[in-house]
């Protein structure tokens, strides 16, 4: 599993937060499950700022089941009171069972209506698991994985190829360009573009830019001794100026300012 705080801009501000691996039967459907739990003092809030993975998430909380699309900008959520959520970072093989065209959800989300018995069943199972005491997170993940497995059904070769594109674009040692990714998958760049549009809703280039920015944020935050030019070169940016422009365009803050702010 990748760095557990990658994508989280200010990990020190997080409430209790866990990333759990998918059970063996669901590894083709879910990259990992993530579970925040919070208890915020009355009258206060905690803002969580995220540069999310370029993938879809299925999120369950006490009130709803929500399918969130890939994002192209920083997002935030203000936590208040007491609560929890259980999210599944979906692999491409799971997406088609939940939405026909993921591009319509880019930078958006859709609450899945509980008029369908299976959606109500999922929320009910997770509400029960999260309120069940010690081991509640493992039970919630197991119930979520079972539900997804039943919803998606057997995973065929086309879905496995779609999963492979996610590994090539987002995994460790990921490709730096669409051309490199296409070569690794032994497909044309055009085919790669169709695959990412069909399973994520973004272009390969947009996915690569998002991953690079996530990695850059981690390095800027966690390695104050490494200069920004070195980080830019390591991640395939043309130069330090390109890294700075990416930061400011998406995060609204320059890398040096982010480094200073995240150390507080």
What proportion of the residues form beta strands (DSSP E)? 15-25%
Low-confidence runs of at least 5 consecutive residues: none
Helix content: 40-55%
Summarize the biggest pleated sheet.
6 strands, antiparallel
Q: What is the C-alpha radius of gyration, as a whole number of Å?
A: 19 Å
Q: What's the total count of β strands?
A: 8
CATH class label of the largest domain = Mainly Beta
Query: Architecture of the largest domain, according to CATH?
Result: Sandwich
What fold name goes in the CATH topology slot of the largest domain?
A: Jelly Rolls
- How many angstroms separate the termini? 27 Å
Q: Judging from the principal axes of the Cα atoms, what is the shape?
A: globular
Total number of helices: 10
Whole-number mean pLDDT: 89
Number of domains: 2
In which order are the strands of the major sheet placed? Answer: 1-2-7-4-5-8
Structural class: alpha+beta
Along the chain, the helix and strand elements come as EEEEEEEHEHHHHHHHHH
